[in-house]
Amino acid sequence: MMGNPGSQSGPDVVPPSRPPMRRGHLVRFAAAVAIAAIAVSAVGAEVAPSRRASPIPGGNGASPTPRTSSGPTVTPSPTATGSGPSATPAGPRSRGYLADRSDLIQRAALARTGVQPYAAALDDLLAWAGGPLRRAPHPATRLRIPGTEGPFVDDTASAYGLALAYVMTGERQYGEAAANYIMAWVDTTTSTRGTCKDDGACQTSLIISRTVPGFVFAADLLQGSDVLDDASRERLGVWLKDVMLPTASELDNNWGDAGTFTRIALTDYLGDQAGFDAAVQKWRELLDLVKRDGHIPAEVARGRGGIGYTQEALDYKVAAALIAERRGVDLWDYKGSRGGSLKGALDYLAKYMHHPSRWPWYHPVRRWPPSAVWELAYSHWQDPDFATLVLEGRPQGSEGHSAVRWTTLTNGIPIDGG
Asked: How many domains does the chain have?
């Protein structure tokens, strides 16, 4: 979706406060953790605690991981568990973006025992993975993306999805294919066309902003294996810094949200502390534009697409908040200068996702299907208004046009009914 800046005003309502976790959730979370712990201990695997306690292994909590100028910081990784194939070779573990290897190994153990939503999400991933295994990357020397789809979108998704499959199954073919997708673009694409950070006519800038973090997520999950060697990682870092990062949008709408998401992911991977801090500050500035009642002026002004563009913007705001949390930065609870908040914006959107006919900005508005944002939001807040949207979209898999994919597998938590 393209987005253009716009603004309208509406009634201001203080967003509801965070609801407490319900007892039923706590019981299911404890059971899931126990199952994962049994599966891990059965083969003597040691899962290093990489984050603060969370309701399910692989939850969204994170302790800070220091960055250095030389690249991603790494620590020891667990090995595979359960009855499936062995996981990726032992070695430095991933830093974690939407998920890290230790998250996924525990979720794979749950999936192998039939625990939902992990079993269905893993089946969905592996059913999809056969396609990109048979397909070759299609990199361009001078990258121009005129629409919302194309080889760059497909190949960033292929790299990330195959890296997930590699960690979840331990099958080397997935890891090698993921690395091949990454390096095909790194070693081919030397420049971009139709990119500018401050112009809504630069479509290539938008699509890169949406999708290039998929290469970072994939490379991070391959960390510690030999399918992506040190020389390849070094070339990837140079390419991200010199070719991709300069294209990230800085507009004050969903384009800028996508650009901020990309800058947070890429600067973190590159160990660029100043760049990461600047991207976090841009995130706060964009949240400052959210009104007290939760609506985002630039997105509700988009006519029939107002609900869809609002959801699009929140995809990137929430994914960026999750990555920042893993680095010890709390964006979840930030309150903007106009009284808006991330939770308030999600509450506002959820209300009209449930009742689109009541949308006050345009009639009739188009209601898009629930996106992956609801998995991320629900895993953080356990809000029952979000749960029905999560269940409507499960399992979230390869669908979409951004790097925020497979969130049922990477971030989902159990909900009654699915």
From this structure: 1
